[in-house]
Amino acid sequence: PKSNFIGAMIWKWCYDTLIGMEAGTGKKLPWLATKWKVHSPRKLELWLRKGVKFTDGTTFTAKNVEFAFSRIMAKGSRQRVFFKALERVEIVNDYQVILHSKPDNGMLNRLARWGHAMSLKAKGVDKKIISRKTLYGSGPYILTEWAKGRKMVFDANPNWWANSKYPNRPKKVILRGIKSSVTRVKALQKGEIDLVMGILPQYIPQIEKNPKLAVADIPAVRMMFISFVTRNGGPFADQNVRLAANYAIDAELLRTTFLAGKAVISGSLFHPWNYAGYNKNDKWHGYDLKKAKAYMAKSKYPKGFKATVYATIGRYPGDVKTCEALGGFFKEIGIKATCRTMPYSAWKKKRKSYQKGKGLGEAAVFVQGYGNSGGDPGNIAPATGGCKGHSSVHCFKDLDVQIDKAKFTADPKQQQIEFEKVTAMMKEKAIFKILYKTNDIYAYKKGFGFNPRHDESFYVWEIDMSKVKK
User: Fold this and answer.
1) Which of 192, 225, 296, 393 could form a disulfide with 244 if both were Cys (CB 3.0 to 4.6 A apart)?
2) Sequence-ordered alpha helix ranges (H) in 227-376
């Protein structure tokens, strides 16, 4: 399947992964693989579940795993980036495979998020057809209707292998795309929908006043940060300017004011569910106006300059308000910043223009978020800070070298050390102002039996309809 973030969230509704993951803890669970053995960072053996049927009637075997990864590793695949270390799939027998790779301690994490199994009958079928007609999956649901931009309708797969494990899951699910935060909340209050993801903190009080509704917010994986464009010269190519900007921004004030405290201040790009890199003791540059002014004074721009802050509209919690607030923070150190907000698609194009070398000498800043739901430090670090990162406006060769060293270090303890060095280099260079890790906030009808997840996923089959109040 090929889609955007929402697509990534619902792929598993129709296409099973090999590994499952427990909500909240990130503990790996049996799924299409019933057990596994990590022989080394280069060799992972998996024993596959028997009796699994795809919705086209064919049987799941090791050949389907081999086929799935042949598609993933093909040029143009969106999942290819997650499995760059994979070298080959060895079939031991119909229900046993070995994944051979370059040193990779994160394979289990990726197999819980990506690497969906697919019927051999999908070979040669156009990707758009596979996405719209989910006849090639073995998952809990089948996509039966898709009105692009409006809704998707899923019916329970009557032949799903885990039906007995989730006997009370919803038999029909309608997924509606409602872009406006206000409209989503109103639809819930009117009883038009049962559950909403991505509730903004300012709507929590009015939802909680409704005796029929409830709110759940849980620590999650999305990191919010400010990225200073360093690639094209200009003021933010000056390390002293970046340090000044870091110390001028009060992340705690943003967290408590615009996110109502529904976030956790972070000291790095890595969250607790990453297989390496996270250190709870990491601290980023805090708020210190005296230090900010001192760094600005010894920069090449002691009298300040003009800058543009780019932010999305409603893509991330508090994105517009954060953009506006940055103007006030920067003013204290002589930077006259203009806030420009726009839809995500336009924001992404603007960032791409800087990546391609446009805007030479300009002072630009991006308010960014990155989910890293697969728990892969080797993904988020190069993606946001590397020379070829799809979300990066930076290029420091020494940082790229350290990221690659960390990614391919075999010993887990040493790999942790190497990723901590990545964090230290990012902090020293001050290419970001790392703000916080946001909470995921859900609003739903009381009695709705579901367990909110930490990984920006929503497993609809985990809803227990027997607990739903009529």
Assistant:
1) 296
2) 239-248, 251-258, 289-297, 319-331, 344-355
Our separate counts of H helices and E strands in the chain read: 14, 16
In sequence order, what are the residues at sequence separation of 6 or more whose Cβ sits closer than 8 angstroms to the Cβ of residue 438? 220, 222, 223, 224, 259, 262, 263, 316, 317, 369
Quick: pLDDT tens for 38-90: 999 999 999 999 999 999 999 999 999 999 999 999 988 888 888 989 999 99
Give which of 67, 71, 102, 66 is closest to 84, Cα–Cα.
102
Angle subtended at Cα 109 by Cα 107 and Cα 114, rounded to the nearest 5 degrees: 85
Q: Quick check: 223 and 437 in contact, CB under 8 A?
A: yes
d(CA 423, CA 296): 23
* Prediction pTM value: 0.91
Write down the domain spans for the chain: 5-126, 220-439
Return the CATH fold of 220-439. Dipeptide-binding Protein; domain 3 (3.10.105)
Contacts (Cβ under 8 Å, ≥6 apart) of 421: 402, 406
Question: Looking at the chain, how many residues does it have?
Answer: 470
pLDDT in tens, 134-178: 679 999 999 999 988 889 999 999 999 999 999 999 999 999 988
- Residue 10, Ramachandran bin (φ over 0: left; ψ between -120 and 50: alpha; else beta): alpha
pLDDT tens sequence across 239-283 = 999 999 999 999 999 999 999 999 999 999 999 999 999 999 999
d(CA 247, CA 24): 33
Q: Quick one: tokens of 360?
A: 């030479």
The residue with tokens 């009117």 is 190
Three-state SS at 100: strand
Fold of 5-126: Dipeptide-binding Protein; domain 1 (3.90.76)
Q: What is the mean pLDDT of residues 445-469?
A: 84
Find the helix packing angle between 377-385 and 412-429, rounded to 10°.
Answer: 20
Of 88, 85, 108, 83, the closest CA to residue 99 belongs to 88
